[in-house]
Amino acid sequence: MALSKTKSEHGEEVMDFPLLTIGVLGVQGAVTEHLQAVEQCGARAVFVRNPAQLDNLDGLILPGGESTTIGRLIKRYGYEEKIHRLAEKGKPLWGTCAGMVLLADKVENQNPVLGLMSISVRRNAFGRQRESFEADLDIPALGGEPYRGVFIRAPIILSTGKGVETLARFKEHIVAARQDNFLATSFHPELTSDERLHRYFLLAAQEARTG
Question: Is 131 annotated in the active site?
Fold first, then answer.
């Protein structure tokens, strides 16, 4: 079945993803905006409230929030094993802000949670809530137009391991990266109207689904 197409807010023709089911981990954090963005791109979005919902997903988004709290709930309620199983099947996982911390195999001054992606991360690298900011980012994988990044108590990637592709930097800091089926962003794409990163993730899920 061919992908359907629609018009973006800029008027260009873009793909929809009607066959995909994408979960957003709902234990804590910025869930609703990701659900809306996924559905805006034409895929089915699932608010994941229990581990059993992870079994039939084409991809999973780990949203922003408080990484220590989310990590504790992941372990307490049995999400960890099923998230690892998704990763082993090659299903795309995307961590935004706190979600990036959850994916990392090294986290400064604390133990990693999922340890799936070969990145070393520093939490709250830009300061507290009042130091939140927005900045235009150059992300070649998304095309030539700048991408507006929303940084809220954002982490940064200190270093990357084998096979990790840097997608974007803010000043000298790595703020977006990809490794195989893992995507990590320091900022909050769900808080903008720019769908390009969600579509980038959904395209990876579509490719994984079709082999």
Answer: no
